[in-house]
Amino acid sequence: MCGIVGFTGAAPAAPILLEGLRRLEYRGYDSAGVAVQHEGAIEMVKASGTVEHLAEMTSNGAALEGGCGIAHTRWATHGAPTDTNAHPHLSEDGRFAVVHNGIIENYAALRRELEGEGYSFASETDTEVVAHLLERYYDGDLRRAVMRTASRLEGSYVLGVLCACEPGRLFCVKEAGPLILGLGVDENYFASDVTALVGYTRNVIYLEDGEMAELTPESVTVYDRTGREIPKSVSHVVWDIEAAEKGGYEHFMMKEIMEQPRAVKSTIEPRIRSGRVELEGLDLTAEDFARFRRIVITACGSAYHAGMVGKYVIESLCRVPVEVDLASELRYRDPIVGEDTLLIVVSQSGETADTIAALRECKARGAYVLAIVNVVGSTIARLADCALYTHAGPEIAVATTKGYTTQLSALYLFAVWAAEKLGRIDEMRYNELVAELSALPARIQRAIDLNLHVKYLAGRWHAQRAMFFIGRNIDYAAALEGSLKLKEISYIHSEAYAAGELKHGTIALIDEGRLVVALCCQTALFEKMVGNIQEVKARGAKVLGLAPEGDRRIFAEADDVLFAPGGEPLFAAAPEIVPLQLFAYYVARENGCDIDKPRNLAKSVTVE
Ligand code: M6R
Predict the structure, then answer these.
(1) 400: Cβ below 6 Å to ligand 1?
(2) How far apart are CA 389 and CA 410, in angstroms?
């Protein structure tokens, strides 16, 4: 979604701002712009299209002089992705420039009010009201003008503000949506994503909702809503710039698929000490646990699919009822959640708007919140009662891969840990499961190594108009994710179904030559899956079977075969998703799709 960068220092701002925007490209956007202070005025360039286009228009920033500025990548919400609607937006007198992430819900009323006072609007955006409000409220005190402006806004917003008459001074405001300050030597930054900063500084301050910061080259000051200065602690980011680069791969997605063994190892290994699962920060005792009558898992997209797998695994090992709910649904359905509920919130970015809202809703009702999250210091991590970080490193491709498998790993760890706490598994089973957890990175590596012919299969099947994914139990949950991977990057219509449900309607869609991907890694249900495979074949479908390595029975059933290494079936989703990620990747590549930045999608969905 939209990205924001701000810089103030002695160096020319525009090249730094453009570099920051490049680092934010992965979030998804459709226009970009930059504004800098120069000799008491604001110079601005903005256009629909790419950051590279913006760089060309400004000779990579050299055409814009000045050491203080703001920049933005826009993902259109209010108004089409045109040059005019691109950010920054200027006040009518040209003294204020604003960049904005989020949605200003009362913008229509504010616009009417401002138009009534004679302000004229150049764009269709909700953001432009902010620039005009700043002009209206500025009386020589920029901080007061920013505060008064913010107090008029409803909705979710992160703002970056530049004023022509305040040399070297920047303001930023956070009200829902990420905003991070970067601290340099005689220069300071702000950005909506830490990846825009790590090339320049690792020392950062995470702002909370309702906070505002004032930046000059020498100082950073944070204020609360009332204008009171507040102390903030400085965090050190451990990700380095290489972690956010392609490292020789054609696409981030492929790099991230290949990183999965290492990423999963980072999630699991530090949490197994002397053969025991230890979840630092999750200091719930067996008695604390006993008060939870139910577990609710909430998330969006792939994280929700990870939650589906989590439900099967936790219920099987802990014998506690688990409900999985889409965050966008949970937040509006008056959920039955209270102090007897453990809420598990799953999110790679930690900034997904619906997930944050569902978390807040359940927390207000008394739920204890455990976050499974990748980005340290993210909003979800900070709102939760405790966080289990997935340590996947930065995930740049819009289609999540290592984000998903590390979420699975964290859910597996939690399930084994909780089952032991609750006394639901004996020592032998516990030791077996711990050994299986430790073996997971190698199992994922084997899944990668086993499937070198996926590229060939993608060549065979990439022209399909639609595909179906079927499975039972955990295979069904993995089918949902396999299907999402395919549709989001290749734009091929695809659906996942619980295999037993086919004959209740969906089988009507099966026609001659239609590809059905049949996940058969739950060995106890293999025969049931054979029945479903036969049903679709009898109606003309072709079947791509996915089975545990060495299970030769699949050859008799499927037209083509993929394998995932065998092992504990409860943990099968992590290795079995790998061939499906690769399949989606190669199909999309065959079809010439923009794999890392699929159309209409954003990496981090920070608006509802
Ligand atoms: O950052 P989150 O895990 O909260 O994101 C949730 C979804 O938007 C995300 O998983 C999305 O479905 C994936 N990009 C799909 O690959």
Answers:
(1) yes
(2) 8
